[in-house]
Amino acid sequence: MSTKTRKPAKPRTPKMSKSAARADGAAKTDRLRKAALAEINDRLAGGKQDHEVPSEKEVANNANLGAATKGKKAKGEKAPKTPKAPKPAKEPKPTPPKRVSALDAAAQVLAANEVPMRAKEMIAAMEAKKLWTSPGGKTPEATLYAAIIREIAAKGNAARFKKHDRGVFVAGKGA
């Protein structure tokens, strides 16, 4: 046999029906609501509310402040400051030339070249002219092709590129 002792069972309260529980809860809520309203009405009927009446400490503190400020200058007043000498203007730093995007470099290459070019040929020409180099991507020609297609779709006839044949582009009117 086991050595564990059994705990005595807790007496269970009888279960209420859902409607009885709802009625009991509603009655409790109603009692609390009436008590709160009565307290609010009592406070309002008494004249000033608690936060409107200054406490003894506040009255004493205000009296001390009034006595202290008589004959003295206000707390915030200070002697005017002497103006500082203006700093000499700094020379603007020479800004390095802005890096050209692949799309801008491709537009320059196509404008200079009369022959229609593919994206891979444009990438090679841009690297040869040192206009743009790939930052290490595996397929810069695919990225350039997608960017050219997006520009043609967005700008239409005003685009810097024009599709000559499948995968082949020439300089457009916007170039």
Report the strand count.
3
Estimate the global geometry from the Cα principal axes.
Answer: flat
Terminal residue distance: 97 Å
Strand content: 5-15%
Radius of gyration: 43 Å
The secondary-structure class comes to mainly alpha
The strand order across the widest sheet is 1-3-2
Total DSSP helices = 5
Largest sheet: 3 strands, antiparallel
Average pLDDT taken over every residue: 83
Q: Helical residue percent?
A: 40-55%
Report the uncertain regions.
none
Order of helices and strands: HHHEHHEE
Q: What's this model, at a glance?
A:
By secondary structure, the protein is mostly helical. Among the domains are: 19-65; 102-171.
List keywords for this structure.
175 residues; mainly alpha; 5 helices
Can you give a write-up of this model?
- There is one protein chain.
- This protein is mainly alpha-helical.
- Among the domains are: 19-65; 102-171.
- The chain is 45% helix and 6% strand.
- The chain has five helices and three strands; from the N terminus they run H-H-H-E-H-H-E-E.
- It has helices at residues 18-45, 56-69, 102-112, 119-128, 140-155, and strands at residues 117-118, 161-165, 168-171.
- A three-stranded antiparallel beta sheet has the order 1-3-2.
- Helix 3 (102-112) packs across helix 4 (119-128) and helix 4 packs across helix 5.
- The longest helix has 28 residues, at 18-45.
- The relative contact order is 0.07.
